């Protein structure tokens, strides 16, 4: 935990601050040097990555409680916004394949890459489709069915330094997986969702509140670093912003979005909470044990329309 090993803390802070400045001033170089994909630190094969995207796609509709046979009817003609698609918009491809009219992908970092590996991933996704779904997916590329040709307007990949779309009432579904825990401004991100969505449309998110490898021994000890120091070390890298579930509730309430569903996917053990409690940084000290325990969650939000009078 922070403060128990001052020399180790200083070494880690210096290294992190230097690399954070690199991410701030040369984000493309930072991405190249760190090899970020948006799917975590582990190296995956094209086959594993393709299956990851299929799992993500399935999970969204499991959360929404939409049966497989009803997915195309639900997506038909809809415009989708995805926050943090990573280096290849595999979920976006599957959304269009199953009926979506278009997908807009928003990222803070220029991760998109038509590398041989990513081309193979998209080819594997195409091979897993058949019939109309395959034909719709093939239309996502400049040359029909050729991922190496680049993406057609059906899938737009936009890089925004603040990670916000800036859209106004143009999308019918907002999605993200393990992204919201990385955003710089959670209140602004939920406000962006509200503005981007059409009335009575939905947002579905899977959020990972773990340390992403930045803890030492206790899974919650990354919450002991002072807020100002964490910002200097990690403010521009897109690593966890550390906000807990209570803060998400506040940001959702402020945005005007209605919370339809929220449940934890992983909980910390009581002994880990007790061990870290006395060492927590200021923003986390008054959070209840119940809220501190949330290490991941899923939620569904809705932008309510104006009722006719």
Quick summary of this structure?
With 309 residues, this protein is an alpha/beta fold. The chain is 39% helix and 20% strand. It is globular and about 60 Å long.
Question: Your description of this structure?
Answer:
With 309 residues, the chain is of the alpha/beta class. The protein has helices spanning 6-25, 27-34, 46-63, 71-75, 90-97, 116-127, 131-138, 186-196, 227-234, 245-255, 270-276, 289-292, and strands spanning 79-83, 102-107, 141-143, 146-151, 155-159, 171-177, 197-208, 258-267, 294-302. The strands form two sheets. A seven-stranded mixed β-sheet has the order 5-2-1-6-7-9-8, with helices on both faces. It has a two-stranded antiparallel ribbon with strand order 3-4. Helix 8 links the parallel strand 6 and strand 7. The protein is globular. The mean pLDDT is 94.
Poorly predicted residue ranges: none
By CATH, the superfamily comes out as Vaccinia Virus protein VP39
Residue-averaged pLDDT, rounded? 94
Q: How are strands sequenced across the largest beta sheet?
A: 5-2-1-6-7-9-8
Number of strands: 9
Strand content is 15-25%
User: Would you tell me the structural class of the helices and strands?
Assistant: alpha/beta
From the 3D coordinates, which CATH architecture would you assign? Answer: 3-Layer(aba) Sandwich
Main beta sheet strand tally, sense and closure: 7 strands, mixed
Based on Cα principal axes, name the global outline. Answer: globular
CATH fold category name: Rossmann fold
- In total, the number of domains comes to 1
Order of helices and strands: HHHHEHEHHEEEEHEHHEHHE
How many helices? The count is: 12
Overall CATH class: Alpha Beta
User: How large is the radius of gyration?
Assistant: 20 Å
Helix content: 25-40%
**N-C termini distance:** 57 Å
């Amino acid at each position: 935990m922070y403060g128990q090993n001052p020399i180790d803390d200083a070494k880690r802070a210096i290294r992190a601050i230097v690399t954070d400045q690199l991410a701030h001033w040369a984000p493309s170089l930072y991405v190249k040097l760190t090899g970020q994909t948006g799917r975590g630190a582990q190296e995956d094969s094209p086959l594993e990555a393709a299956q990851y995207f299929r799992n993500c796609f399935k999970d969204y509709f499991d959360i929404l409680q939409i049966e497989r046979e009803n997915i195309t009817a639900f997506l038909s003609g809809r415009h989708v916004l995805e926050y943090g698609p990573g280096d290849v918009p595999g979920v976006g491809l599957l959304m269009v394949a199953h009926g979506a009219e278009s997908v807009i992908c928003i990222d803070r970092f220029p991760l998109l890459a038509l590398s041989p590996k990513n081309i193979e991933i998209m080819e594997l996704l195409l091979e897993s489709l058949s019939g109309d779904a395959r034909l719709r997916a093939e239309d996502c590329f400049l040359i029909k069915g050729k991922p190496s040709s680049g993406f057609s307007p059906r899938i737009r990949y936009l890089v925004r330094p603040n990670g916000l779309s800036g859209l106004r009432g143009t999308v019918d579904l907002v999605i993200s997986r393990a992204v919201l825990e990385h955003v710089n401004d959670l209140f602004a991100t939920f406000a962006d969702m509200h503005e981007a969505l059409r009335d009575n449309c939905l947002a579905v998110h899977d959020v990972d509140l773990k340390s992403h490898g930045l803890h030492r021994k206790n899974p919650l000890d990354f919450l002991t670093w002072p807020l100002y120091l964490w910002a200097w070390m990690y403010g521009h890298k897109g690593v966890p912003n550390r906000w807990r579930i209570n803060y998400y509730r506040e940001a959702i309430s402020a945005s005007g979005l209605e919370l339809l569903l929220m449940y934890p996917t992983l909980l910390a053990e009581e002994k880990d909470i007790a061990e870290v409690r006395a060492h927590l940084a200021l923003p986390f000290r008054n959070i209840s044990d119940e809220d501190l325990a949330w290490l991941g969650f899923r939620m569904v939000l809705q932008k309510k329309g104006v009722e006719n009078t």
